[in-house]
């Protein structure tokens, strides 16, 4: 069972994502800030990380950049899950090291497909 870390400051989004992931057989951890997500990723070594962009403090782009450039976490694929649907945001997310970019509201099949793709 793959371990997924959700980094999102919205309890509602975290709840929705957790339900989808658990229904599809994944183990779930969550963090409500970029800083907490980076620390939890380092400590727990999840198989995949789902990252929101708009968060106070360390935003999702900054957290993704830290994770993708750190020796301890660069192997963990980051999937950005955000309401920001501009092409420029997607390009910037990929430049920070994200392996996929999904726009909220999340489609369950699309999310599971993206996770499966980065795991393989």
Note down, in words, how this protein is organized:
- With 120 residues, the protein is of the alpha/beta class.
- The protein has one domain (3-119): Response regulator (Rossmann fold).
- It is built from 5 helices and 5 strands.
- It has a 5-stranded parallel beta sheet, sandwiched between helices.
- Strand 1 (3-7), helix 1 and strand 2 (27-31) form a beta-alpha-beta unit.
- Helix 2 (34-44) runs parallel beside helix 3.
- The longest helix is centred in the N-terminal third of the chain and has 13 residues, at 11-23.
- The radius of gyration is 13 Å and the shape is globular.
- The mean pLDDT is 97.
Which terms would index this structure?
120 residues; 5-stranded parallel β-sheet; 5 helices; alpha/beta; Rossmann fold
Strand and helix layout:
Elements: E1 3-7, H1 11-23, E2 27-31, H2 34-44, E3 48-51, H3 60-69, E4 78-82, H4 87-95, E5 100-103, H5 108-119
Parallel strand pairs: 1-2, 1-3, 3-4, 4-5
Quick recap of the structure?
With 120 residues, this protein is an alpha/beta fold. 46% of the residues lie in helices and 19% in strands.
Name of the CATH architecture: 3-Layer(aba) Sandwich
Encode the helix/strand succession as letters.
Answer: EHEHEHEHEH
Shape: globular
Largest pleated sheet: 5 strands, parallel
Helix content: 40-55%
Q: Record the strand order, biggest sheet.
A: 2-1-3-4-5
Structural class by SSE content: alpha/beta
Radius of gyration: 13 Å
Q: Which CATH first-tier class would you pick?
A: Alpha Beta
The overall pLDDT average reads: 97
**The CATH homology group name:** Response regulator
Say what the CATH topology is: Rossmann fold
**Which regions contain 5 or more consecutive residues with pLDDT less than 50?**
none
Kindly give the count of domains.
1
Quick one: how many beta strands? 5
Termini Cα gap: 14 Å
Number of helical segments with 4 or more residues:
5
Question: DSSP strand (E) fraction?
Answer: 15-25%
């Amino acid at each position: 069972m793959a371990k997924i870390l959700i980094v999102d400051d919205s309890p509602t989004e975290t709840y929705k994502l957790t339900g989808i992931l658990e229904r599809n057989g994944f183990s779930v951890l969550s963090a409500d800030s970029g800083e907490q997500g980076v620390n939890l990723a380092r400590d727990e070594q999840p198989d995949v990380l789902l990252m929101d962009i708009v968060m106070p403090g360390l935003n999702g782009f900054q957290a993704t950049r830290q994770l993708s450039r750190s020796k301890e976490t660069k192997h963990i694929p980051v999937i950005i899950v955000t309401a920001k649907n501009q092409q420029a945001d997607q390009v910037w997310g990929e430049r920070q090291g994200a392996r996929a970019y999904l726009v909220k509201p999340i489609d369950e099949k699309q999310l599971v497909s993206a996770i499966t793709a980065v795991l393989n």
